Amino acid sequence: MSVIHKFGLVRLLLLLALPLLMLLLNACAAVSGAPAPITTTLLTDTSITLSAASVKAGDVVFRITNTSMMELHELVVIKTDLSADQLIPDASGRLDESTLTSMGEEGDITMHQSVDLPLKLAPGRYLLICNLPGHYQAGMHTVFTVTP
Fold first, then answer.
1. Phi, psi (deg, nearest 5) at residue 65
2. Residue 110 to residues 13, 66, 123, 132, 140: CA-CA distances in angstroms?
3. Contacts with 58 (C-beta within 8 Å, 6 or more apart), sequence order
4. pLDDT tens, residue by residue, 111-141
């Protein structure tokens, strides 16, 4: 029995065309200049790690994953020149976001959930934080730089 008879002509064509289609889609993404997402991991309730500490200005996507076994998290992107120790949480253990320049946020990220946060960012210094009570104080913040 020939391959064409075993799989059918349509299946064979699809099987052959799929790798070419994937190459074409990857080439289109590369040509469009779309940046790769910044992998953003909310680790064990005490830190935020990034796959890159800086990017060029423009469209940025933070691909956020909460790796916590028990905690809900959020990610807030704040534009600031202040260092983390200059921002003092209130009595509830949160920063007052109304006094900060928030560029966007993704809240209520459950355990083992991944979400994307697309933003358009201008050059500058940013602080990425989890602003749930006590999380900022526990070390859930990191600096991120956007270059011209």
1. -125, 130
2. 42, 7, 31, 13, 16
3. 35, 120, 121
4. 999 999 999 999 999 999 999 999 999 999 9
Residue 17, classed as helix, strand or coil, is helix
Helices (H), 1-137: 3-7, 9-32
- Judge contact between 62 and 117, C-beta under 8 A: yes
8-state DSSP, 97? G
Say how far apart CA 103 and CA 8 lie, in whole Å.
Answer: 53
Would strands 58-66 and 114-121 be described as parallel, antiparallel, or unpaired? antiparallel
Q: Pairing state of beta strands 54-56 and 141-147?
A: parallel
Residue pair 40/113 in contact by the 8 Å Cβ criterion: no
Buried b (16+ CB within 10 A) or exposed e, 135-145: bbeeebbbebe
The answer to whether 146 and 121 have CB atoms below 8 angstroms apart is: yes
Average pLDDT of the chain is 82
